[in-house]
């Protein structure tokens, strides 16, 4: 007995002879196939408008006639014989009248380049799922003969060889994709514990297989299209199981390469930050090789795990989100965080800066669906020293954000906050630049305001004691402290503020 199939399954077959929908419904049912049927030698069906639910599909090897009246006659005669789906070479040139007639009769007209291939595809879908699976396996075997540069390249090779889209997913979403994208909610519908699963809906037809990889867990290979029949999905399950080890091996190779690269880039960023303005031709050369430009404006960012989190996994997740974001970014590992910066070029507008920050926040929101992660964003800076500043600020801001649930676990530094300064005290490499940035409004030629503030804090914020220690009038001290508050925008009633300023003053003065 012939298996009932629909037109969409044949259109989705990768070796259907170049089938193209011309007119009529795309989901008409068919069972059986007649190759070059003799329409004139066949008796008409009694009621062609109510033929069997799934009549045979008619595949012709001769081209559609040029004359419109002959096209109409062919369609009418095929209908009288009970056919609803016609596969005809050259049908894409059908007249408007022939197309309209096809639709009026609720028939489907398909154009084909290779009728014999189409006939074979019909046979596979109907009666030989094993042959279909073997064809898929033979096609994908060619993938192993061509070396892919990376995981994305491997998936492109798989997709082109089988004629369907290929994707790699985990519980957080899509990692690699070669098609138009899986529908929303697809990942939630997949059983990640099962070996092989199948999804068949109006939106997508897909098979998934668990990827057995020691480098990455909880990931699945997905082969998908639209309108695939069960026989195609069964064949694709076999093919997916065959190709899965190649995917696992490629993931392992890419993971090793990524770990090596992350180690090298992390060390380079650390060396750059430690230079603090000094020149090092070797560091400059390595930065140039990585296209780490210091010219123009940059905005630093840092993503830090809350609790115990693997920095390399965080880096991979952030990199995957940054890729399609459109941001000109660099990212590596520093201080247990995924740290980087966005290059904004010369004199970016305020709107562009805010749009960049918004994209980083969106990436953070996406990460938090599967990660407990905090994010810090530095201030807009330019040049080599500015890059050091904004990256350092972002790292310190991320440390603060870990404890800022009310702020969505993210902190943005527009002017360096006092909390950052307190945290940075644990690292001399970051504290001094932070302190200098905070107190820069007070660092004029005389440094009277800085000296007064330092003495004032040394004497527990007592004006008379400060005046006596400095040998000046108490009113002068009061005016200077008031001026300090205006310049720094701080509240001396806050003990944390006084402590941060006290530490900063002594660091800047070298005490």
UniProtKB/TrEMBL annotation:
Region (Disordered): 31-55
Organism from which the protein derives: Brevibacterium senegalense
Name of the protein: Helix-turn-helix domain-containing protein
Assigned protein family: Belongs to the CdaR family.
Domain CdaR GGDEF-like: 278-400
Transmembrane segments: none
Domain PucR C-terminal helix-turn-helix stretches: 449-507
